[in-house]
Amino acid sequence: MDIDIRHIAKLSRLKISDDEFAKFENEMKGIVDMVNTLPQLGEDLAIDENNVMQLRKDIAETGKFTRDELFQNAPQVKAGCLVVPKTVE
Asked: pLDDT at position 50, please?
């Protein structure tokens, strides 16, 4: 696969010296080769039902902190609420 590092550098507005182009080209080829060897979903992937990732239970904890403790690091609080910059005119 031919990778045009000069074109990629131009598109990404990177300044790469002439002696670095070969290094980056080899690294980019290595990355592309590595991605090409990844298994495609449904192709080489076999789902093992005994080795399924266990996610933690999403349980909200209440009463751990007081409202004042939660707001002590806030940049600005008014009437018990966080003040944030206006985003919509």
From this structure: 65
Q: How far apart are the C-alpha atoms of 25 and 13, rounded to whole Å?
A: 16
User: 31, 9, 29: which is closest to 18 by C-alpha?
Assistant: 9
The CA–CA distances, whole Å, from 15 to 1, 10, 23, 59 equal: 23, 8, 14, 49
Helices (H), 38-88: 67-71
Q: What is the pTM of this model?
A: 0.42
User: Can you give the length of the chain in residues?
Assistant: 89
Domain spans of the chain, in order of start: 5-37
Q: Which helix (H) or strand (E) holds 18?
A: none
